[in-house]
Amino acid sequence: MTVIEARGLRKAFGTTIALDGIDLRVEEGRILGIIGPNGAGKSTALNAILGLTQYQGDLRVLGRDPWSERDQLMRDVCFIADVAVLPRWMRVSQALDYVAGVHPRFDRAKAESFLARTDIQRSSRIKELSKGMVTQLHLALVMAIDAKLLVLDEPTLGLDILYRKQFYDSLLNDYFDRSRTIVVTTHQVEDVQNVLTDLMFINRGRIVLACSMEEFESRYLEVTVRPEQVAAARALRPVNERQVFGRSILLFDQVGRQQLAALGDVRTPSIADLFVAVMGNHASQPQGVSK
Question: What is the dihedral of CA 259, 260, 266, 269, to 10 degrees?
């Protein structure tokens, strides 16, 4: 089943083009990471998917037009934003009551079981909780809703590494299954390297890379090149080269591991390293996008 399908998706704010003819297809049971610099169009794309902004082009989410059929769509979609929107005056127990009252697919017992693994007290007001605890509460509320699509916009921004790991562990172990689909945007790409099934880089409103993680791992290799092999490595036309402690590290696309092993130490690059390489190459090309 196709969960999200966009063709020629476009959105402009005055003379600024936020989305410039994006084509996107996300199948059921996938975890897509959308990575891009500030102002690249990530949040605009999510807002279109959630029916929060109008757009040009064709967009279907779970078979529905998210702008004209948002009420029906939201029965099957959950959203966690950068900043939790839970009212600070509300008690944890009241938050549970509220979601139980407004969402027909909320399982309160499941939310309670998630919260039982935390230090969150039901009598506490949200303003008394740390940011990590607020995120845990928000996640417990969302994971207890039987939704088909979960959209996460910088969900762990501002959290320390422990809370970030707990967040994604909970997401994978307690929420995700092959019938659910997750779309996440984040700048903390190191946290999602082993979580994603699919990867997309976006810049200036355009998709500049889209692949599965299987393709990512088979296509891209990084080599710490021995000094005497630098010229030979450059002859293979790397997509990026950087210097670390005086050593040349070159990134290659679709060059055989055995061939590269003769030049130095070979490894799969991080998403962050590939992102820097792709964005650097993309920035050097003319775009034709109005600003």
Answer: -110
- Class of residue 246 by CB neighbours under 10 A (exposed 0-12, middle 13-18, buried 19+): exposed
pLDDT digits (tens, 9 = 90+) for 61-111: 999 999 999 999 988 998 887 656 788 999 999 999 999 998 888 999 999
Q: Are 106 and 145 in contact (CB under 8 A)?
A: yes
DSSP 269: P
The C-alpha angle 220, 194, 22, rounded to 5 degrees, equals 65
Q: What angle do CA 57, 58, 64 make, to 5 degrees?
A: 145
Query: For residues 44 and 6, what is the distance between their CA atoms, to the nearest angstrom?
Result: 13
- Which H or E run contains 267? strand 264-267
Residue 195 to residues 140, 167, 259, 267, Cα–Cα distance (Å): 19, 11, 30, 19
Label residues 139-178 b or e (16+ Cβ within 10 Å = b): bbbbbbbbbbbbbbbbbbeebeeebbebbbebbeebbbee
Q: 179 near 148, Cβ under 8 Å?
A: yes
Report which of 204, 234, 237, 201 is spatially closest to residue 216, judged by C-alpha positions.
Answer: 201
Global pTM reads 0.88
